[in-house]
Amino acid sequence: MRSVTIMQVVGVGLTATALALLVREERPLFAYFITLVATMIIFISVLSNVQKIIELIINLSQRAHVNALFTATILKIVAVAYIADFAAQISRDAGETSIAGKIELAGKVMILMMAIPILEAMIETVLALIPV
Amino acid sequence: MEPDIQTLFTIAGIGIIVGMIHSVLRMIGREDWANWMTLIGFVIVLYMVVNFIQNLFQHIQRVFHFF
């Protein structure tokens, strides 16, 4: 999949903003859909670059003999943060700040849930250091 | 997945057409028809957007090894 240049992203963004403004007077509902699809298009086009970065991170962590669980959890946390922020921004953009807040709350809770194994592992290593 | 801009313009087109149909039907005096047309337009666009969202989330799961 060819990588996306910044010009394409700017092109998509500006045309989408113009379309959203055009449709906002008559049917604000469709303007919401246009902003939604536009953000997704830009998000997908950036994902291919993110994939390369993630492969680099995985290679480095394997070479550094980091526990595979940690890198996998960190990648999942980044993914949840990405998606939660994406959805919260869009609903806030549409004027629904309360829904945006709840989405962010759910994202934080899920991230904390995923971080539990890492915290346990860290506590165990610390306890192992302390001579009981 | 090729980020296709085509859906963006289709949604804008549907939005404009539904807006026009709505105002035309209201001028004729058929208020209920106008609302039905807006609803139909909304359902079509929602279907397209949901497909797009599913595509995005599958892509994210593949990139972040999320599954």
Condensed summary:
Chain A has 132 residues and is mainly alpha-helical.
Describe, in plain words, how this protein is organized in 3D:
The complex is a heterodimer of chains A (132) and B (67). Chain A has 132 residues and is mainly alpha-helical. Chain A is built from four helices and no strands. Chain A has helices spanning 6-26, 28-63, 68-93, 97-129. The model of chain A has no long low-confidence stretch (mean pLDDT 89). With 67 residues, chain B is mainly alpha-helical. Chain B has one domain (5-64). Chain B is 84% helix and 0% strand. Chain B has two helices and no strands. Chain B has helices spanning 6-28, 31-63. Chain A binds chain B through residues 1, 4, 12, 15-16, 19, 22-23, 26-27, 29-31, 33-34, 36-38, 40-45, 47, 50-51, 54, 72, 75-76, 78-79, 82-83, and chain B through 1-5, 7-9, 11-12, 14-16, 18-20, 22-23, 38, 41-42, 45-46, 49, 52-53, 55-57, 59-61, 63-66. Chain B: This is Stage III sporulation protein AC.
Key phrases:
heterodimer; A: 132 residues; mainly alpha; 2 domains; 0% strand; B: 67 residues; 2 helices; Stage III sporulation protein AC (chain B); transmembrane (chain B)
Mean pLDDT of chain B: 88
The total count of strands of chain A amounts to: 0
Oligomer description: heterodimer
Largest interface: A-B, 35 and 36 residues
**Low-confidence region ranges of chain B:** none
Pfam families (chain B): SpoIIIAC
Transmembrane segments (chain B): 7-28, 34-53
Organism (chain B): Candidatus Carbonibacillus altaicus
Protein name (chain B): Stage III sporulation protein AC
Secondary-structure topology with pairs:
The complex is a heterodimer of chains A (132) and B (67).
Chain A: H1 6-26, H2 28-63, H3 68-93, H4 97-129
Helix pairs in contact in A: 1-2, 2-3, 3-4
Chain B: H1 6-28, H2 31-63
Helix pairs in contact in B: 1-2
InterPro entries (chain B): Spore_III_AC, Spore_III_AC/AD
Organism (chain B): Candidatus Carbonibacillus altaicus
Transmembrane segments (chain B): 7-28, 34-53
